[in-house]
Amino acid sequence: MLGLMQDRPLMISSLIEYAAAFHPDAEVVSRLPEGHIRRSNWREVNERSKQVANALAELGIEEGDRVATLAWNSDRHLALYFGVSGSGAVMHTVNPRLFGHQISYIINHAEDRVLFFDITFASLVSQLAPELSTVRTFVAMTDREHMPEVPGVPEDRLLCWDEFIGRQSTHYDWPEFDELSASSLCYTSGTTGNPKGVLYSHRSTMLHTLMAAARDANDVHSGSVILLVVPMFHANAWGTPYTAAMVGAKLVLPGPHLDGESVYELMKTEGVNQSQGVPTVWMMLFAYLDEHPEIDPHELGLRVAGTGGAALPLSMIERFDRDFGADAMQGWGMTETSPLCVIGRLLPKHERLSDAEKAQIKLKQGRGICGVELKIVDDEGNRLPWDGKAFGEVWVRGPWIASGYFKGEGGDKLDAEGFFPTGDVATIDPDGYLQLVDRAKDVIKSGGEWVSSIDLENAAMGHPAVAEAAVIGMPHPKWQERPLLVVVLRNGADATRDELIDHLAGEVAKWWLPDDVLFVDELPHTATGKVSKLQLRERFRDYQLPTVAT
Ligand code: ADP
């Protein structure tokens, strides 16, 4: 027997309609690529989204057509999120930090018909335009005064956002269609092989949004003032553009200005109480604060510093607590998982623990959220126990987890039970906390045992002189691989190899200690802000550990 409830499709457009109807004046503040700050609100973002939808209709964009963006976080990008998906087209957020040839590959592979771009990317667009075989219209997201020169794009195919969008009607009836229809497309950075497209649907996005906002997940509500540093071109900015609309939160969008000073200023002037970004961004914020000891970050009133994309180091948890009075919290997921799978919140029973004990729990990536099923398996695919000790590859299943890649790239991914392989290796403890040991390809195999690069990096970053650290496995004739620690010191700080090894000796098992420590000015980062182990391994390919007899 079927239930008798209304069969209403889950549509992304319903989020912006809700925000405009019930939180019209809740602010959306953007620092634009042009340099100034623009104050808007959900009512205006809704109007702008409708103008986008009308503009796409004028360009002949039909349901399912892909529309690309090369853009930073701003209210214009937000209007595209709702306008493109809401009209039935597919919002394709392209990561501008990828190499030029990867960007043109992605845009051609997605067969994007329109490309919206921030003026920061004018020369990139100019350079790539001749290779973009499917893009018919280019829209520079700015006003007439700031219109860039874009040689390579014929004048009749280059439009100015303010003129083109501005002259459209703000009236538009959002269409209703199958909730399983594609809503947005995001390519993974593809450390190996070509980037692969993850194609989200209205239904997957709506279910992810409902769950991500929950108290035990990101805890987003109408009192939230969220600084969204995670880029809107990366896994839908962790879904926060949708969650913020769903609850009418104030949204603060930093544009391209991600340096410590700009981020701090924005937090202060806008009264930010939650922030979301990868750890690298918070490291830049810390470096700025190191140079300005007169600033007391307590003045911000920041409650939660949300991180993801890479492990949250203990030193960061401690610093947010001590200097900001804020709770650092991590989530784990990936582009293929929308991205939220687990989140590092404490349980009520942990409240009585000391700060140090709580921090140890926050070091774990977190507990699964309802809707995501998790399993860890051994090499033969057998499920491993949740005892906090056994580790294996993590597989996930749920309505916002990818079933495969766009156009079938990469082949069938799911196992017989319908789980998706994440390529991450983890333990899960009896309370359900998942703790990442490593990415399968980064784990260091020493004498038949595994050394977790994440744990070692974490311990190294606990040394006061260390700003950033990365550990890679180097070939070793006896042990197969041994860890090499590569360190960036804080500005003005000093530490020797032996001091760092001594520090680690108090934190990790003896056989985990790196065979050597190298100091560098900077670590290479991927397009999504993680340390690029691939490039690091490449850079030290010819380096020989001192423990290797010559
Ligand atoms: P990329 O294109 O850089 O792979 P993703 O966002 O899809 O971008 O990356 C997902 C990966 O990032 C995960 O598979 C995991 O290895 C890593 N990751 C995500 N969150 C965390 C976290 N909290 N701690 C450690 N690693 C994380």
UniProtKB/TrEMBL annotation:
Domain AMP-dependent synthetase/ligase stretches: 17-406
Q: What is its EC number?
A: 6.2.1.3
Q: Which UniProt keywords apply?
A: Fatty acid metabolism, Ligase, Lipid metabolism
Alphabetized InterPro entries for the sequence: AMP-bd_C (IPR025110), AMP-bd_C_sf (IPR045851), AMP-binding_CS (IPR020845), AMP-dep_synth/lig_dom (IPR000873), ANL_N_sf (IPR042099)
Catalytic reaction list: a long-chain fatty acid + ATP + CoA = a long-chain fatty acyl-CoA + AMP + diphosphate
- PROSITE patterns in the record: AMP_BINDING (PS00455)
Listed name of the protein:
Long-chain-fatty-acid--CoA ligase FadD13
- What is the uppermost EC class here? ligase
